[in-house]
Specification:
- The protein is an all-alpha fold.
- It is built from 13 helices and no strands.
- The radius of gyration is 21 Å and the shape is globular.
Length: about 425
């Protein structure tokens, strides 16, 4: 997704050697792909061992929790990953991340009593919030690894967490037939993974690159405030992007119920498969794009153009696969009753094609330090999606949600392209 970058003139000084971009991309793609498949496996487990209502409850919980954590997380991972001048220590990033995580949990806990949701759904929302809190703490460690180009450690961490998650989710569902127990078991596994592999890996790397530091929060309020100010614009942007993606789910749940949301969530996650390639490409290319934008604009334009073309190709392939194999795919992966919504899957993949290109252009905007214009752009995109949902979802149900996502994706793509083109004509440095 979109990344926040400090001014970058050179790779981090403490990286022992320059890792080829292809190797970084390969590790990132492998880790993200395994994790995405496993996250999808969790949904498949719920569809196979549970009911569409359970899947709807889990999807609604993600729709509530994800935007909140995107906002309070402040994109500190990428601020850390691109801190090439070592302006802040790892402990300085841990402090605002702990505060943001606590605020997110309080907001979610405060939302539940006033939501008028079923008791079981409210419990699942709270448990997903706990799981996301653990994930956000691990996210800072991943940013530390990313800064020092240890994409291999990130890939192993994601693969281990993903494989364990789908195994725990499936086993808990099989034994208890309760989505709440299964979600709680998954959150507990994430906590254990954070406390073992991720904590140990971060501690060992920190000892090698900065022996005088410790893996704990440093409560320097001046630096904490600066990091909050630095990360807030893209925290808002990520909140809007997450809200934009989840608005159709809220409309579907309101007008058509949790069962309809469950069917939609199962198909919408296919959207994520292509985004795995896009995220891997963006994360691995971000440091190089930043250097190119700072010192070689033609090289920046060439690399970003190639990334856009690859994103478009991934999107077109998704449309073709959904068009020709959609019913069979849904029948085999989920259950026979999911195949009736194959047309919805095709339109979702059309929306994905535009979303992939918009995501890559978002990396370009952030590398170019076009921060503040992103807020009104994605606020407008979220408004467009919400308006489309308000008009289409009550009338067309799942298909209306797919149309609304497509409309929002086209708008985001056009706006992002405009700002990237404008940034290429600007002076070498753009202020925040």
């Amino acid at each position: 997704m979109h990344e926040l970058l400090a001014p970058v003139a050179a790779p981090p000084a403490k990286v022992a050697k320059r890792v080829p971009l292809r190797e970084n991309f390969a590790w990132t793609l492998a880790g993200n792909a395994i994790y995405a498949v496993c996250q999808w496996g969790m949904l498949v487990s719920i569809a196979k061992l549970g009911t569409p209502v359970m899947l709807g409850q889990f999807a609604l919980a993600l729709a509530v929790a994800a935007p909140v954590f995107m906002l309070t997380g402040l994109q500190l991972r990428v601020v850390l990953a691109t801190d090439a001048r070592d302006e802040y220590r790892l402990g300085h990033y841990l402090a605002p991340r702990l505060l943001g995580t606590a605020v997110a949990l309080i907001l979610i806990a405060g939302f539940v009593p006033f939501s008028h949701l079923h008791r079981d759904t409210a419990i699942v929302i709270l448990l997903v919030g706990v799981a996301k809190a653990v994930e956000m703490l691990g996210d800072i460690i991943h940013g530390f690894w990313q800064k020092h180009e240890r994409f291999d450690k990130i890939a192993i961490a994601l693969a281990g967490r993903g494989i364990g998650s789908v195994a725990v989710m499936a086993a808990a569902l099989y034994v208890t037939r309760s989505i709440a127990f299964a979600t709680a078991a998954t959150a507990l596994f994430w906590l254990l993974w954070l406390a073992t592999y991720e904590h140990k890996g971060a501690k060992n790397l920190l000892a090698s690159v900065s022996p005088q530091e410790f893996l704990r929060a440093e409560w320097d309020m001046v630096k904490c405030r600066r990091l909050v100010v630095l990360g807030l614009p893209l925290g808002v942007v990520m909140f809007l992007l997450s809200l934009n993606a989840n608005i159709p789910r809220h409309f579907l749940e309101h007008y058509w119920g949790e069962s309809a949301l469950g069917y939609f969530a199962a198909m919408a996650y296919v959207f994520v498969a292509g985004n795995t390639v896009i995220s891997a490409m963006g994360q691995s290319a971000t440091p190089r794009l930043a250097r190119y934008f700072d010192s070689d604009r033609p090289a920046f334009a060439r690399l970003l153009t190639n990334m856009v073309l690859l994103g478009a190709i991934v999107g077109i392939l998704g449309i073709g696969l959904a068009l020709f194999f959609g019913p069979t795919f849904l029948r085999l992966v989920y259950r026979a009753d999911y195949a009736q919504y194959a047309a919805v899957l095709t339109w979702l993949m059309a929306a994905a094609a535009f979303a992939y290109v918009a995501s890559i252009l978002g990396y370009g905007m952030t590398v170019a330090r076009v921060f503040r214009p992103q807020v009104p752009l994605f606020l407008a995109a979220t408004s467009v999606t919400a308006l489309a949902c308000w008009f289409l979802v009550p009338r067309l149900g799942l298909m209306g949600s797919a149309y609304a996502i497509l409309i929002g994706s086209v708008f985001s793509c056009a706006g992002s392209a405009y700002f990237v083109f404008t940034s290429l004509r600007s002076q070498p440095r753009i202020g925040v």
